[in-house]
Design goal:
Elements: E1 7-12, E2 15-20, E3 29-33, E4 41-47, E5 53-57, H1 59-62, E6 68-71, H2 82-85, E7 91-94, E8 106-110, E9 113-117, E10 122-123, E11 128-130, E12 134-141, H3 147-150, H4 161-191, H5 216-230, H6 237-255, E13 271-272, E14 286-289, E15 296-307, E16 310-312, H7 318-327, E17 340-342, E18 345-347, H8 363-375, E19 380-382, E20 391-393, H9 397-408, E21 411-416, E22 420-426, E23 434-445, E24 453-459, E25 465-471, H10 473-477, H11 485-500, E26 504-513, H12 515-530, H13 535-546, E27 551-562, H14 566-575, E28 579-583, H15 588-597, E29 606-610, H16 615-623, H17 626-653, E30 660-665, H18 666-672, H19 675-686, E31 690-694, H20 698-711, E32 716-720, H21 726-731, E33 734-738, H22 745-749, E34 752-754, H23 760-797, H24 810-820, H25 822-831, H26 837-842, H27 848-851, H28 858-883, H29 896-917, H30 924-945, H31 960-965, H32 968-995, H33 999-1006, H34 1015-1022, H35 1027-1036, H36 1056-1062, H37 1071-1076
Parallel strand pairs: 14-28, 14-32, 28-31, 29-30, 30-31, 32-33, 33-34
Antiparallel strand pairs: 1-2, 1-3, 3-12, 4-10, 4-12, 5-6, 5-11, 7-8, 8-9, 13-34, 15-16, 15-27, 17-18, 19-20, 21-22, 22-23, 23-24, 24-25, 25-26, 26-27
Length: about 1100
Amino acid sequence: MAVNNNMIHVLQDQKWVSIPWKKLQVGDVVKVEQDGFFPADLLFLASMNVDGVCYIETANLDGETNLKIRKALEKTWDYLTPEKTSEFKGEIQCEQANNSLYTFTGNLLVQNQILPVNPNQLLLRGCSLRNTEYVVGVVIFTGHETKVMMNAMNVPSKRSTLERKLDKLILALFVTLFVMCFIGAVGSAIFINKKYFYLHLESSEEGSGQFNPRNRFLVFLLTMFTLITLYSTIIPISLYVSIEMIKFIQSTQFINKDLHMYHYETNTPALARTSNLNEELGQVEYIFSDKTGTLTRNLMEFFQCSIGGEIYGKGITEIEKGIAECSGLKFEENISLNALRERGFNFDDARLMRGAWRNEPNPNSCKEFFRCLAICHTVLPEGEETPEKIKYQAASPDEAALVIAAKNFGFFFFRRSPTMIYIREAHVEKMGKIQDVSYEILNVLEFNSTRKRQSVVCRYPDGRLVLYCKGADTVIYERLANGYNDIKKVTREHLEQFGSAGLRTLCLAYKELHPDVYESWNEKFVQAKSSLHDREKKLDEVAELIENDLILIGSTAIEDKLQEGVPACIETLQRAGIKIWVLTGDKVETAINIAYACNLINNEMKQFIISSETDVIREVEDRGDQVEVARFIKEEVKKELKKCLEEAQSYFSSLSGPKLALVIDGKCLMYALDPSLRVMLLNLSMNCHAVVCCRVSPLQKAQVTSLVKKGARKITLSIGDGANDVSMIQAAHVGIGISGLEGMQAVMASDFAIAQFRYLADLLLVHGRWSYLRICKVVTYFFYKNLTFTLTQFWFTFQTGFSGQRFYDDWFQSLYNVIFTALPVIIVGLFDKDVSASLSKKYPELYREGIRNGFFKWRVVAIWAFFSVYQSLVFFYFVSLSSLSAKNSAGKIFGLWDVSTMAFTCVVVTVNLRLLMICNSITRWHYLSVGGGILAWFIFVFIYSGISTSYDRQENLYFVIYVLMSTSYFYVTLVLVPVVALFGDFVYQGVQRWFSPYDYQIIQEMHDEIDDTSRTQLLEIGNQLTPAEARSHAISQLPREISKHTGFAFDSPGYESFFAAQLGVYAPQKAWDVARRASMRSRPMIGQKK
């Protein structure tokens, strides 16, 4: 690889020497300069920055562009110069090479000391150095053992449901091929007889054994192989090539360049990362969606808080507004003129601002609350150390919002070193006084999805030791000290109130530590940190020892606003027959209210709530017996599931039962996914219109997706924006990543990427439905044209004593699929359009045909097969029988090659014209491709028949086409045969459209939108768009050539319901309307109907 030829500085003989990356070995000491990439996985030794710190960008690993901080071990800070670095002697003990990007366990043995090494000292290949002159490191893993290379595996291969069904169709064709060959071979063995002495069947010449009547079994075998070769055209080998080409163009040209899915603010277009699943987008029945960053914007704003049992912060959230609008209520929002507004901070309460908190009844609680916000985090400050110009690099938007809140409350975090945090505190000693205070960070107990909390042990300037902890209310409440029941109870009520408003909540607590207790605990912490085996588990166990007896300070409430257009999109998708499940880590109350605001749940629905937050379960949990707790919760879940299922079934037995919604939390879901309860959960979920799973882990998201995918055998789609959604995205049939603020992990694991949830409507209802419709037509048409062509050869076999004589010339057979019928079907796969994009979204019910797989059922295949048999009989017998009485200009009757050339001409013309009959819209490309295919045949046969060679039976066709075209028989047959062959299809399509129309055909009758879309419709669409989308829409509506032909079975709209629809009056469709159209010759313009 070219990248491995890049040069890197390596320490050799006390100087830096440049060598290529590919020559690096484990143990080499290297120097990486600013903006350079790390050539291998390195142990970070030293940096030119203060306190051994460097900044790296990990965009190549996880897509995140915010800088990460890495800190060298203090013992190695001095190894910067070649002379000093050459003195470095040590031993590195570490885990085996693995693909985990975020974990590393090792020890550095230097100067008889064991120093624990963790991911903070690891510089991974693929990352780049930023804001640092240079760093020095030791190579740990190289080449294919580096973490980035071990992660370089493909996203799990996914095949669409239609492709899997296509495999069955191909198997059916193989069976058909075998049956046809078997019939021919048996017929040959029976036909061979000594009475046909004049055929010299017993000749001793080479190759005559195939027809030797003395060995009929040999005749059977040899004829079988001959016919397999002869009938092999029934297998559409070129079908897979054509489908891949169509899908690739659909992805790169249609999906990726759709302006309706382009996000103007972030300059993000839609991205199809695979072309395998285009048609799967048109058959999705279940959508599993993350909440944060997917339904919401992931732009966190500090909105309210509870301190010492008192709520601070005014205003109403977007979620409350949405719920109010659903209930028909109206709120008048009063915005204070003194309210501070900043990205990440939307707080309005003068009681806490500008030092006014000192006058509150609980000023000490307020002070601890603000310090906890300012100290307990892993945020990095950037830029000038002033409140107006500083920027924070945070692992999550929540954390940044909390630090910004602390800044606005007068506790400004402005600088960080590996061991210190600097806070500019205002109004603490007295009003108006500002002082810079440094806090020594002794230990950081990291946040993870298991712990659901983060703790920091810090030393105040006066030597006081304090542990600050923030995390989910469930884990914090379990670790609170006894007593303080009043504040616990009030804060819990406040948490429920915040959750009801759709706010994200965290609890804050602290604990003062005695120096002796801390020193004793720190020894265990250092031991756990140095452990090579189960380090994470041991660190969690040690953290449990100190994260107890906490004192509750209060809670924060952060608003994450809904994305634009989410409620309308969800409503549209539900009308399309798609069921939407929300899988979130939020509280039950928050999730329910988000679901209300999204139109996922409404007041008319019957809600089943299965939660572990009940008094009965709490009582059992308070006893502390984990085995008893697990048994009890499982029994409760079983009881609730059974009760809900019975109630759901009773609603379904009544005609006017309400729609159902299920809400279940993560703890109950854990037991509901048990094999003994899984079927009951699935049955209940299948009967529900909407499902909301709260407090779920990433693994549970994937388990729920797999439950529906494998248990119910439904086509599923997962959509998310964060690393915690990756497993869910990969578990579903189709994975959608949203390129949001949580990095690019979800996008990198997805099949399709979009910028906003609302674009899902365009992706599924427009591109997905069109792709499904087009691919179905391509597959069934390929099946039809190959079967039709092969059956003409099959009928000929009966006339030749089953000898295996060819009906068509070899070149005809070879070029039939490659040239004469290749391009038109690709054009249909790219451009066929039953209704416009606007009507696809206006009538989302059209999507249900895809969910039912209405266009690729065995019944549909059987109808195509029937017409293939009919047309092949017409081609062979009409041409062969009519040729018996026909003569050429010399008065001679036509021979085999005359008849076969005539039949082949009819086949090429008919199958190309048949393609036009299945098109819903016909463009110039259709005319060019169909005309081009027929023209290509005539050009080829003119040239081929005009050349005489003695090779490969070509002399048989010499001058055949010229002789044929010199007779009137040729032209009469060329007109009559396609008409007779296609007459059955024409009648069937007319009757089907009249008596049993597809949904899209009804919409076509109602809207003549392919000819001229009314201005009213365009205005209606435009009013629903944002300014950026309106601009995109305007571009897409620029004048262009539009086909004046619809390709409908009947093509003249002159019936009552059409005019009624144009005048804005609804008139139900009548069967005789369609028949009445036959007499209508002209198409009235909209402007004339005033």
